[in-house]
Specification:
Bound molecules: protoporphyrin IX containing FE
Number of domains: 3
Number of strands: 21
Strand content: 25-35%
Distance between the termini: 42 Å
Length: 526
């Protein structure tokens, strides 16, 4: 069972929340399977899958090295990685990449999402990949290499001859060869020139047309029917077992099932030290806390929303038949009969959707708690109106935990940027309220700021934890003391980053974005 909060909650959001209320919009790069942002010859779904394959292509499964570890970020200048596909892919990731969502997990999601949009079978998303910090060995297969070389390379990646044929057919059902990258194959290097692996619209559908056209000896695939036979690597690979596998793959269900398997194995090829999670499934119930902070009246503002999965074949077929409320305990765990009611947002009808028709409905709450008693945890109650039945969710038994030892005073926090020549200097102010009983002198309150550190020739930055101590302001308010980081310098690169707050050695405020702080002035309190 899923217990909230979970270290992969953010990845689950990026995966599940594609449109509507609370959307993350990772899907925007692949709005249709053929979508390429109007750049001639570009098809993002194909670029994302090719990027993932080139990343794992240098894996050595026996040694447990390489795989989907994003080392490809450091390898884009190599002759074996021709074209802009790789850096285009990482460019799209920039709004999603964080200390909670590695480039390599996003690459896995890119493949899962592309399969969904293009019509492949569902493949599971496991997460927990760790990004390499430097280039890996060379060794991506290239068209001019012979069959024994390719067979040996796929064996090193963990795929036998049959699986090699399958994986190449599954990969080359989408996209094209670009004249700008391989003019020796397309015989045309004009801007935007492409030669699709499949005739017509089929290049934007995850189907087995590539197999049929190969078997019919009537194919647009220039790795099969190119004029220079040395470069016809798909021809050699597809025919490696005298077409036994290709004949089997001519059945579309068989093709889809085999692609489901080998594409899953492709993204789940990881270095031996990586432990992948179980497949991420859409959570039935998930809360989000927007604000838990002291207000000027001396009580605690508490707001957020609950996400409930609904739809065909789920517990809740009809979103309009639902309502929800919370009950909560005080900070000492005493049960309150007090109810926090919720309303369904009007924005986007309070619903959202993910890949493959996952749908969610939201219920918002916005209330005030007495600061003397605070909050320890809450339960979520979902009512089906037509049957007048209510299901109580207690997060696996212990309730949904909330800590009010340290409150993040979001309204009293802000970020501003001022031009300094070609760059922007940022200034970050964060206020936190610490319960007076938690302020013995030896417990340090620190900001852990996820600073971006740029890397030569690499699209996405590295993260470095910058630790800054909060200072006491001397102000107190209803049992809390106010602490502040005042005007900390931040580079423009870090303007969309995240932070945590740590009391002693316990993380009390976890993974907050500074994005929202850019829009506001620091309010006063106390
Ligand atoms: C011997 C193995 C392989 C060779 C020699 C090879 C070669 C190529 C070449 C030359 C291109 C054209 C790239 C361009 O012009 O931008 C290409 C494209 C592509 N490859 Fe492969 N490939 C191999 C295996 C795979 C595998 C296993 C996959 C994934 C499962 C894959 C996925 C793709 C995709 C999706 C494209 C289209 C990219 C786009 O349209 O931007 N390839 N491949």
């Amino acid at each position: 069972g899923y217990v909230w909060p979970d270290k992969y909650d953010y990845m689950e959001d990026i995966y599940m929340l594609q449109s509507g209320f609370n959307r993350m919009g990772f899907i925007d790069g692949i709005l249709s399977c053929g979508f390429g942002q109007r750049v001639p010859g570009r098809q993002n779904s194909a670029e994302w899958i090719r990027t993932a394959y080139h990343d794992i292509a240098t894996a050595d499964v026996e040694a447990g090295t390489g795989g989907l570890d994003a080392s490809i970020q450091f390898e884009t200048e190599r002759g074996e990685n021709k074209g802009s596909a790789f850096n285009n892919t990482f460019g799209h990731f920039s709004g999603y990449y964080s200390p909670r969502s590695s480039v390599s997990d996003l690459l896995a999601l890119a493949v899962v999402g592309s399969m969904a949009i293009c019509g492949g079978y569902e493949i599971p998303l496991r997460v927990g990949r760790i990004d390499a910090t430097e280039a890996g060995p060379m060794g991506v297969p290239e068209p001019q290499q012979d069959l024994p070389t390719h067979t040996a390379k796929f064996a090193k990646q963990g795929f036998n001859q049959t699986e090699m044929i399958e994986l190449v057919a599954c990969g080359h059902t989408l996209g094209s060869i670009h004249g700008a990258n391989f003019p020796e194959i397309t015989k045309d290097n004009s801007t935007g020139q492409v030669s699709h692996f499949e005739y017509g619209e089929s290049a934007t559908v995850f189907d087995n047309t590539v197999v049929h056209e190969y078997l019919a000896s009537n194919t647009s695939n220039l790795l099969v029917a190119g004029s220079n036979d040395t470069l016809n690597s798909d021809k050699r690979i597809f025919g490696a077992d005298k077409n036994v596998t290709m004949n089997l793959l001519s059945d579309n269900t068989y093709f889809q099932t085999r692609c489901q398997d080998v594409m899953t194995r492709m993204i789940d090829t990881v270095p031996k030290e990586v432990v992948l999670s179980d497949p991420i499934i859409a959570r039935d119930i998930k809360p989000y806390i927007n604000l838990l902070a002291l207000n000027s009246n001396g009580s605690i503002d508490f707001s957020g929303y609950i996400r409930v999965r609904y739809g065909t074949n789920t517990k809740y077929p009809n979103a309009d038949d639902l309502s929800a409320y919370l009950t909560y305990t005080d900070r000492n765990g005493n049960n309150f009969t007090k109810i926090i009611s919720t309303t369904r947002p009007t924005w986007q009808a309070g619903t959202g959707a993910g890949f493959r028709g996952y749908t969610f409905v939201y219920f918002e709450w916005d209330t005030q708690l007495a600061s003397e008693s605070g909050i320890g945890s809450f339960h979520i109650h979902v009512t089906t109106k037509s049957t007048n039945t209510t299901q109580e969710y207690n997060n696996g038994g212990n309730g949904y935990p909330v800590q009010d030892k340290v409150l993040y005073q979001m309204k009293q926090s802000c970020a501003s940027y001022t031009p300094n020549g070609a760059v922007y200097d940022g200034s970050l102010t964060i206020m936190a309220a610490v319960r007076s009983t938690e302020v013995p002198g030896h417990k340090q309150l620190n900001l852990h700021f996820d600073k971006h550190v740029s890397r030569q020739g690499v699209v996405l930055d590295a993260f470095e934890t910058q630790i800054e101590a909060f200072n006491a302001t001397g102000k107190t308010l209803t049992g809390y003391e106010l602490f502040k980081i005042d005007g900390m310098y931040i580079g423009a690169d870090s303007s969309g980053t995240t932070f945590s707050v740590v009391l002693g050695d316990t993380t009390v405020i976890d993974f907050k974005s500074i994005n929202a702080l850019t829009q506001q002035e620091c309010a006063t309190i106390g």
